[in-house]
Specification:
Elements lengths: L1 E2 L2 E2 L5 E3 L8 H10 L3 E8 H5 L3 H4 L11 E6 L3 H13 L4 E6 L4 H4 L11 H14 L4 E6 L9 H10 L5 E4 L14 H8 L7 E4 L5 H11 L3 E4 L9 H11 L7 H18 L2 H13 L11 H7 L5 H16 L1
Parallel strand pairs: 3-4, 3-10, 4-5, 5-6, 6-7, 7-8, 8-9, 9-10
Antiparallel strand pairs: 1-2
Helix pairs in contact: 1-10, 4-6, 6-7, 7-8, 9-10, 11-12, 11-14
């Protein structure tokens, strides 16, 4: 599969853009584990144009994580164009347009999935950004605003006509947020539409290697995108890649998984500082599937959410390994 001239290989698996998750360290680990393309956290166009430091820091990428896409969101065409030009100077491989974020503070203001209520503006933004930059532009959106307005099969060709080079679709409406099950049937219909010439990337509820395989086989998508299932589990890309390449998979040994989590801790602290780095990483550790199903783990998870130093957190992981994981 290619996005413009960027070859992502056969049946690629992508890391979804996620706020407070897809920082540089995590992106690199996911690339090392088999993600074919990674995305930055959401970048606000308005904040980027105003040169807000916390936003401009999100543009930091390194060559080891390439190919990498920087995703921007906003509601005003001019700000989105200006932001895209700023992003282009950071030299990502792709600029992605966020038309799918469902959270209230974004969508209620008309940005992210809020664009699904103003398709003419969405198309105007897309067309103008494509014309303003030389990098490939892609987009990510949802099935529609709500179950009465699942418009993706009409919207996809119109976005393609604006010049995007790939389209990622999350199999839920904005109204669903992240509840219920993702519906891939319309993603499959869009992919099967003879008008569609660009790659279609399917997203939503890919949590196992088998689900990733079935998404390719059943719906014919060009790529799948993994989001929440990567929380505290960058090795999911190893598992999926192995399944797709060989037809079966073997999980990484527990010590290797714990080493990856410890690396996340260290690099989170190195990137920010100990206090904020621990705040950033500990909730992702608490959500790690590595710890699910361990007996009487509730109190240990509470401790994990309360630790304040790197050493405390590393010692707790060692304790968990000794007590439960062997």
């Amino acid at each position: 599969m290619k996005i413009a001239d960027i070859n992502l290989g056969e049946r690629p698996v992508l890391l979804a853009p996620m706020e407070d998750v897809t920082d540089p360290s995590f992106r690199l680990m996911c690339r090392e584990q088999g993600a074919a393309l990674v995305y930055t956290e959401f970048v606000s166009a308005e904040a980027l144009v105003r040169d807000i430091a916390s936003t401009t820091r999100k543009l930091a990428i390194n060559d080891a994580e390439r190919p990498v896409a920087i995703q921007i969101y906003g509601r005003e065409p001019e700000a989105m164009v200006q932001a895209a030009k700023i992003v282009e100077q950071a030299q990502p491989d792709i600029i992605d347009l966020n038309f799918g974020c469902p959270v209230k503070k974004v969508a209620s203001k008309g940005a992210g999935a809020g664009m699904l209520r103003d398709i003419p503006k969405m198309l105007d933004i897309t067309r103008r950004v494509v014309e303003a930059v030389s990098l490939p532009v892609t987009a990510k959106t949802r099935l529609g605003w709500d179950c009465e307005n699942k418009i993706i099969c009409d919207l996809g060709p119109r976005l393609q006509d604006c010049g995007i080079k790939a389209l990622a679709v999350h199999g839920r409406t904005r109204s669903q947020m992240y509840t219920g099950e993702a519906d891939w049937t319309l993603i499959g219909e869009l992919k099967a539409d003879p008008r569609m010439e660009i790659p279609i990337i399917g997203n939503g509820d890919i949590t196992t290697p088998e689900q990733a395989r079935d998404a390719f086989d059943t719906y014919g998508v060009d790529a799948v995108m993994v989001g929440r299932a990567s929380f505290g589990a960058p090795w999911i890309f190893h598992d999926i890649r192995q399944m797709l390449d060989t037809g079966s998979w073997q999980p990484l040994p527990v010590p290797e998984k714990l080493d990856l989590l410890k690396r996340q801790i260290r690099e989170s602290i190195d990137r920010i500082d100990e206090y904020r780095g621990i705040l950033h990483i500990r909730r992702h550790l608490a959500a790690s599937p590595l710890f699910k199903g361990l007996p009487d783990f509730r109190q240990t998870r509470i401790r994990m959410l309360r630790v304040e130093t790197e050493q405390e957190l590393l010692d707790l992981l060692d304790e968990i390994r000794s007590k439960w994981l062997g």
